[in-house]
Amino acid sequence: MELFPPLPLSEWRDTKETLHRFEQLIGKIRLTSSSRRNHWWNVPFHITGRGITTRPMGQADGNPVFTIDFDFVDHQLIVSALDGTAVSFPLLGQSVASFRRHTLETLADLGIHAEIPHPEPFDLPDSSRPFAMDTEHATYDPEHANRYWQVLSQVALVLEEFAARFSGKCSAVHHFWHTFDLAYTRFSGRHVEQPPQVDSVTREAYSREVTSFGFWFGDDSFAEPAFYAYAAPEPAGLELEPLTPQAARWVAQNGGHLALLRYDDVRALDDPRRALLDFYESAYRAAASRADWDIEAFTSPDGITDQQLVAQHR
């Protein structure tokens, strides 16, 4: 299978918009049915061999232990309980409203009571419209949904390879449903005092100094898929640091700067995987050196921290 197959936003925008809202609805169930973790790490989806999963949840909220999975091979939503029972329904042919109804009915069949806090999309153009009222978003192309999962899986493995180089506190490689991006974050360990006016989501996400890396599929602000990296808080002069490969660049965004590399530029290179690893590494070193991180202390070559093996590796 081709590494980083084509996925122009213009060809699957309608499916993406529908799927994004499906995932937000399930993500909000995950939000209330899981124990809170620092930096919202309980909230994102994780990638499976057939799609994405909430991971097991429940129990602490009085529900049975259950998992919700998107299957992008057979194109179903599957709700599974710990006793082995499972109920599913097709993703094809659903509007957001009917998807919500089927989800709640499926959960009820398994004795699960699900809460959907703020039952409308988060930070999307129709954020004032409840999921239950959305019959507009009803496009689901199985080929595009499957391609979306393939790309997620391929990029996730490159991010896992990149993550192996760092031995400090870091996040999993995970898929955030609110922004529809794949992300991995490294921490320096330094506390960050956020201004009182900053919203609670941001305060938790950026309570520590970070460099973050990821991939998104494109949206209204940047209408094509791209890889990205940034630092928070951003050290002075970050945008002056060089990036690799040559097509990568710093772009101004929200008063700061984002390292950006277009998906199609990576696809055009002789070794896309190596180019992407080089991009993430150059962005990390740019941010970490400007912010005075102890880069050497955090280094974990090929995922190794055993000093005898590290010496042999060198």
UniProtKB/TrEMBL annotation:
It comes from the Bacteria. InterPro entries: DUF5996 (IPR046038). Pfam families: DUF5996. This is Ava_C0101 and related proteins.
